[in-house]
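Extended Data, panel c. Modelled sequence:
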Amino acid sequence: MIRFRSRVFAWVMASVMALGVSVPVMAEDVGISMEKLPAKARKVVCEVFPDAKVKKVEMERRASLIQYEVKLEGGVKLQFSKDGTFTECEVTKGEVPAKLIPAKIREQVKAEFPERKVMCIEHDNKLYELRLDNGDELSFNSSYRLIDIDRFENQ
């Protein structure tokens, strides 16, 4: 009976692999000290939030992707890539510090949405995405040109 189950299991696994179905890869979040954070990331935290107290620092592993997350007191969450490049800031109080928003984007937001605060900024090499305090989401290309506005509709 055990031998039969082993053969069935092997057949099922071989079938799954042959079909190209991916098996979920384990994700791992590990608490680390601030000193283990890449130097570029530590520099951003210290320069932009000099007086903030660090609540939690984690290294997140997803398959081959490694990133870091830093949570500060006062409702600030920062994310960094494997090499420490800043990729995201989200705040629950106040607004995203101006230092984290490229000047050309800051100028456009101030001109077109003067009463709004930036609550979240996220970016990669090709795209910047901002969420305003009214829920609207703005997308900018790598040349800092506004390319899309998703309006938040209050239900």
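Confidence is low (pLDDT under 50) at residues 1-6. This feature is highlighted in the accompanying rendering.
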